[in-house]
Amino acid sequence: MKRTFSTYLLITALTASVALNGYLLWPTEVVRPSKEAVTQSKTQQPPSELFSPYYQQAIRQFDQQQFSAAVASYQQLHTAQPLQAEQLYFQWRNSVEDWLNDGQLTTVERFLQAFLTSEPYNVSMLQLDAERLVKSQQPNQAIVALLALQSLANESQLAAINMRLTQLTIAQLQALNERRAWQTITEQTLAWLDYDNENPRYLFALAHAYYQLNDLPSAQSSLDRLPLEHPLQSQAAALQEQINHAINGLDKVPLEKRGAHYLIDIIINNDVNTQLMIDTGASFTVLPKQLLESLYPQPKYINEMTVNTANGQVKAAHYQVESIKIGQQILHNFDILVINNHSGYGLLGMNFLQHFKFNINQLDNQLELEKQ
User: Fold this and answer.
1) 115-152 b/e (C-beta count within 10 Å ≥ 16 → b)
2) Distance between CA 335 and CA 352 in Å, rounded?
3) Which domain holds residue 204?
4) Which residue of 188, 276, 295, 301 has the fewest CB atoms within a 10 Å radius of its CB?
């Protein structure tokens, strides 16, 4: 009987073992989490109970754009839980960058005003405020703001600020040069030099603007302030030569060759820039009618007169403009003609050139003007 019972136990145990192994080895369907669940697990915040009530309150107020209250909660959090405050700070900074990219400039301004009232010397937030000014089409204010930041920034921040300053000042000077806004350039570069008084780019731009305004002493003084070693040596040398010629009463104005003729840049009424074709056979300077109509103030009408052209005698309207400027040479109350059906470029005639000793230097493509 004992042997039979033992055998029964052994058989039972073997049967159970086989059943268990079969269960463990039987292929089953693997249940994998959905892609959404994985993504959610990566971005899910730690349980809210791990954060200070100040943190949760600041988040809620920030989301509701109650920025002054949110900053006050942030300051309390900074005192109680500095690490949580640091995490919140970076979240807010990222939000401001997103708003800037999305063009939500009013929201950015409201938040930064609240935050900088509490922390007026926070360099990172002040950098973001400078970017707000750029996005608001106020590049000069942004440049001045970044210049003022230089003394507050650490080494890594300073490198980023200087790189951004280079980008902004180059773009601003290029835009102002294209508009020939020489007075604006002098005003802005003088303000920049209050922060960085040996910057060669600012000094050269200032000297060039003074030269264009025919303020030769100031142009020379600005050039003299350039350091001995700087990256604008060739441009400074060319400007120095122009200043020397102007002081001696000689202007060398670049020409653009167009076939057998030359085009020259002129400024009318100290406002409108255009090109005229030099014509030493023309007694009067001729402007296209469309250009005349764009001038402000409107030119003074004198009379109608008959002139000789290559196509015979034609009627022309005689006007007087306030001024015409070529290089550094300017004539006031200058007579011009408008001829109907005149196509192409206007003409620079002898009524301008006769006031100077002039030479068309075909080798260098320059018009040399010297006061008589």
Assistant:
1) bbeebeebbebbbbbbbbbbbeeebbebbbbbbebeee
2) 9
3) 180-248
4) 301
Answer whether 232's CB lies under 8 Å from 199's CB: no
Closest CA to 214 of 182, 178, 238: 182
Q: Is 39 helix (H, G, I), strand (E, B) or coil?
A: helix
Give dist(CA 310, CA 312) in Å, integer.
6
Please tell me whether residues 266 and 314 are part of one structural domain: yes
288 domain-assigned: yes
Q: In this predicted model, which residue has the larger pLDDT, 11 or 227?
A: 227
Verify that 228 and 336 share a domain, yes or no. Answer: no
Could you read off the pLDDT of 310-331 as tens digits, one per residue? 778 889 999 999 999 998 899 9
Domain harbouring 315, CATH code: 2.40.70.10
CATH number of 239's domain: 1.25.40
Are residues 240 and 314 part of one domain? no
Burial of 161 (0-12, 13-18, 19+ CB in 10 A): buried
Paired tokens of 129: 């405020």
pTM, rounded to two decimals:
0.74
The Cα–Cα gap between 286 and 280 comes to 12
Burial (0-12, 13-18, 19+ Cβ within 10 Å), 264:
buried
Angle 123-135/105-118 helices, nearest 10 degrees?
150
Residue finishing a domain among 226, 248, 270: 248
User: What are 252-266's pLDDT values in tens digits?
Assistant: 899 999 999 999 999
Whether 221 and 234 map to the same domain: the answer is: yes
Rounded to an integer, what distance in angstroms lies between the CA atom of residue 125 and that of residue 142?
Answer: 13
What total of structural domains would you count in the chain?
Answer: 2
Residues 6+ apart with CB under 8 A from 301: 317, 318, 319
